[in-house]
Amino acid sequence: MALAIIEVEPKKAMHLASYSLNSETGQSSSAYGETQKLAERTHNRTEPQTAHSALIVEDDPDIALALQDLLEFEGFEVDYASTCRQAFASITQNTYDVVLLDLGLPDGDGSSILNNLHVSHPSLPVIILSASNRDLSPLPAFAHVTKPWVRKELCNLLHQALESTPAAVTQ
Prior knowledge:
By secondary structure, the protein is α/β, with parallel strands linked by helices. The protein has helices at 31-44, 61-73, 84-93, 111-120, 151-164, 167-170; strands spanning 19-21, 28-30, 52-57, 76-81, 98-102, 104-105, 108-109, 126-130, 143-146. The strands form 3 sheets. The protein has a 5-stranded parallel β-sheet, sandwiched between helices. Strands 1-2 form a two-stranded antiparallel ribbon. A two-stranded antiparallel sheet has the order 6-7.
């Protein structure tokens, strides 16, 4: 009796123990397939980057959520404040790499936050987001963006702001 050696491609090999049937849906799955997908995703990943942090100061919850989604998609850790008072508290308790600031807040003008940051954190980039068409050029901000913003342009501004920030500020 001769012994035959059969070569099997590693991707096609599967143990019966790793095959399962979901009793609720009736669908079958292979643990090998799921493991292979996970391995491919892990293999294709680049080294994790240190997440940047951002503070969004915006009183409109819909706009704040849209900004939060955008920033998180871009890899930021995001805090949110809807009033001047909350923003001042966040700034004293946390370190941020960038601030997105609305000027029209329910308990005051966002420019007071900007002026405070300009003194306490002079190298912290602040991007003003405003629906106002008043002249914002005298305000000491990294950039001024009129609402509604263009997503790609705002992302470009965020990355430019991070590149302009000294390493000591980003910690």
